[in-house]
C-alpha cells in the first residue's frame, strides 16, 4: 500500500519515543539504557521530549546545546533555574523515565480533555475565559459522544516561561454540559491564577467518568432541557461539521478554536 511506519522499542516510554524518531519515516530502532550515551547524547537538545523552542533558548544561554550537554550539566543548577522541570529534563537526558507503562490504559476511558497553545500571551480574565468556554464545549461534546458523564473539572494553565498550574474542582453532580464544565473552570481560573499574569497554554479536562445512564434528573427539568438542546447541537455538528454552530464569544478576537471569517 506504500505506507511507511517507524517503530521504537525501549524499556521506558521516553526511550521508546526517542527510538521511534531515529529512523523516520520507515525503520525499527531499539534503544536501551546502555545505548543512551552513544545514540542520544550527540543529538541537539531540542530533540529531547519536553524541550520546546523557548526551553531550547534558555538552555543555550547555559551553554547546553546537545542532550549530552544537558546530561552532564549540574542538576542543582537546573533545579535552581527551572524548578522541578529542570530535574525532570536532566533525568530524561540520562534516559531515566519513571512514568509507568500500563498495557490496559486504552481499555477504559478515565477522562476527556483538550488543551491548546495560544497564538499570543493572553492577559485578561475576559480573554482567557473565551478559551475556557471553547474548550469546555469541545470536552463536553466528546464526553457526550462517548456516552459518559463526569464530575471533576481540571484546568491547566502555562505561561510563556513554562510555569505550569493545574487545579481541579469536583462538582456535586455528574454532567456532560459545557455550561457546568465552564462554570467550574472559570471559578478555578479566578481562584488560582493572578490577574494580569500572561497565559500561553490552556487546558480543560473532565474526569471521574461514568456511563451516561447514571444521569440524575432535577425537579424542574433543567437537566433534561439542557440535554435536549445539547443533543440537537450534536446532531447539527454530526451532519454539517463542527463550525456549523458555536458560541458568539468565539467570534471575538480572543477566539481560537473556530477561525473567524
Automatic annotation (TrEMBL):
- Quick check: keyword Cytoplasm in the entry? yes
Chief location of this protein?
A: cytoplasm
Tell where it localizes: Cytoplasm
GO terms of molecular function:
damaged DNA binding; DNA-directed DNA polymerase activity; metal ion binding
Q: What does the record list as GO biological process? A: DNA repair; DNA replication; error-prone translesion synthesis; SOS response
**Which key words are in the record?**
Cytoplasm, DNA damage, DNA repair, DNA replication, DNA-binding, DNA-directed DNA polymerase, Magnesium, Metal-binding, Mutator protein, Nucleotidyltransferase, Transferase
What's its EC? 2.7.7.7
Question: What GO terms fall under cellular component here?
Answer: cytosol
Q: Which reaction does it catalyse?
A: DNA(n) + a 2'-deoxyribonucleoside 5'-triphosphate = DNA(n+1) + diphosphate
Checking InterPro entries in the record gives: DNA/RNA_pol_sf (IPR043502), DNA_pol_Y-fam_lit_finger_sf (IPR036775), DNA_pol_Y-fam_little_finger (IPR017961), DNA_polymerase-Y (IPR050116), DNApol_IV (IPR022880), IMS_HHH_1 (IPR053848), Rev_trsase/Diguanyl_cyclase (IPR043128), UmuC (IPR001126)
Q: Which cofactor does it need?
A: Mg(2+)
Which residue numbers delimit the UmuC domain? 1-52
UniProt cross-references to Pfam families, sorted A to Z: IMS_C, IMS_HHH_1
Whether Nucleus counts among this entry's keywords is no
Entry's family note: Belongs to the DNA polymerase type-Y family.
> What protein is this chain from?
DNA-directed DNA polymerase
Species source reads Moorella mulderi DSM 14980
- The gene for this chain is dinB_1
